[in-house]
Amino acid sequence: MLQIENVSIKFGNIEALKGINLKVQKGEFFGLLGPNGAGKSTLMKIIVGYLKPDNGHVIMGNELVVYDNVNFRRKIGFVPQEISLYLELSAYQNLKIFGGFYNIPGKVLEEKITEVLKLVQLEDRKKDAVKNFSGGMKRRLNIAASILHDPELILCDEPTVGVDPQSRNAIFDMLMKLNREGKTIIYTTHYMEEAERMCPRLAIIDYGQIIAEGTLTELKKMLERQVTLKVLKTSITIEKTNELSQIGKLLELDGHYEIIPNEYFELNSKLFYYLEELGIPADIINLSRASLEDVFLSLTGRSLRD
Ligand SMILES: Nc1ncnc2c1ncn2[C@@H]1O[C@H](COP(=O)(O)OP(=O)(O)O)[C@@H](O)[C@H]1O
Ligand SMILES: [Mg+2]
Questions:
Q1: Which residue among 7, 9, 11 is best mutated to probe the pocket of ligand 1, counting the most ligand atoms within 8 A of its Cβ?
Q2: What is the pTM of this model?
Q3: pLDDT tens across 247-280, in order?
Q4: Which of 108, 124, 198, 256 has the greatest number of beta carbons closer than 10 A?
């Protein structure tokens, strides 16, 4: 559905994007994960035709995306990183105006407004001025405004920044619902937990380059360790050091052992059974699975966290 080919752009001396290649299939919930300044928003703006790349191009369906072309935007719902709403107006009035941008006929627009207000759970606030809304409510309304015209592709640029946990969950739920209904979604975030939770396939972007791409499983396979087992040093475990080393590569650290299980013991069931057999109590073990944070760290040597 979307093909990004060799897209580059410079702002003065800053190479914001350096030859991006990406393909997103119809119906995907695709993640674009990267730290602040990586180039996520710039790429979103190029996809929707708000920015013109210096090199490369974007193809949607079988059409070349043309810079500043309104017809093309009808197929895309773009939820920008910065809230763009008329604060003095009500939620309903905002949606009327946004609907007008897309030339949606009056009666259809009324139905659409009712439908999207319900989706974003703001029906009961439709007459209230947006300036009195919380960050999360504004964000939800902004999403509503960007899907009034029933776009095939929805671009969401960091929609949960500055949003309370309840609104965040509401946003996740409605995006998943839209995705189940067949919408293709591209979701940018710098929160690896969100990418992990929401996006079955994703790309990691850093300094204007895609440094990894794949399904969650594929990305994690790049890591040397999928699972790390920590076992406290106690009189029991010291006595069983030899048996513990059968599980995999064992490191003796201050106060605990760290074990990278071999393939056989990567399965929880096998591992827990073995530990129980050894008489090692569950409350002195800790098992952690590789995360996208580990993938980012192994690729860049840096942490993704702010
Ligand atoms: N209009 C602009 N003028 C100058 N520099 C910009 C502009 N937009 C983005 N940049 C720079 O391009 C890089 C990528 O920015 P951006 O796409 O906003 O990253 P992200 O969305 O991943 O945080 C940053 O270094 C940013 O400062
Ligand atoms: Mg951004």
A1: 11
A2: 0.86
A3: 999 999 989 999 999 989 988 899 999 999 999 9
A4: 198
Q: Is 174 helix (H, G, I), strand (E, B) or coil?
A: helix
Cα 167 to ligand 1 centre (Å): 27
Domain 227-289 class in CATH: alpha beta
Nearest CA to 206 out of 6, 22, 4, 16 is that of 16
Stretch(es) of the chain classified as CATH 3.40.50.300: 2-215
Query: Going by CA atoms, what residue is nearest to atom 17 of ligand 1?
Result: 39
As a CATH number, domain 2-215 is: 3.40.50.300
Neighbours of 277 (CB within 10 A): 9
Q: Which residue has the higher pLDDT, 264 or 64?
A: 264
- Index of the ligand 1 atom closest to the CA of residue 81: 21
Contact 85, 94 (CB under 8 A): yes
